[in-house]
Specification:
Layout (H helix, E strand, L loop, with lengths): L1 H26 L7 H9 L2 H10 L11 H26 L5 H24 L7
Length: 128
């Protein structure tokens, strides 16, 4: 039980640092375009979650392909790549500064990495 609480506290701390980096990348230069990155990283795990429910992995004898899960992984990858590319495009077009781009990308990666870590550490194991 103590290891679970320590894991939650550590992941929450990393998530707070990620949000802080993205918010500071917006607030320090008074350009609030990098806040779109937060929305993308919060929405990114949803296709995996929805497609996992649709794929119905509870069947014992399932010989069909897992196209729903493949689509969910593809769309999640697309959203993560968009979250990385959006600050690059904004910096290239001159809407945000280069340090804001770096802070936004690092913060976004910390946010998404934390979300993935939460799902990995607290995923229920199936027993046969």
């Amino acid at each position: 039980m103590a290891a679970g609480i320590k894991t939650i506290i550590a992941l929450s701390f990393v998530l707070a640092i990620g949000f802080l980096l993205v918010i500071l990348s917006s607030a320090l230069w008074h350009k609030y375009w990098p806040l779109l990155d937060v929305g993308i990283y919060v929405i990114a795990p949803l296709p995996n979650w929805i497609c996992a429910r649709v794929a119905n992995p509870d069947d014992f004898m399932d010989s069909t392909s897992n196209s729903a899960m493949d689509f969910g992984r593809f769309f999640t990858g697309f959203l993560v790549l968009t979250g990385i590319a959006l600050p690059l495009v904004l910096a290239h077009s001159g809407h945000i500064q280069i340090p804001a781009m770096i802070m936004s990308i690092l913060g976004g990666l910390l946010i998404y990495g934390t979300i993935i870590s939460f799902t990995m550490f607290f995923q229920e194991q199936e027993e046969f």
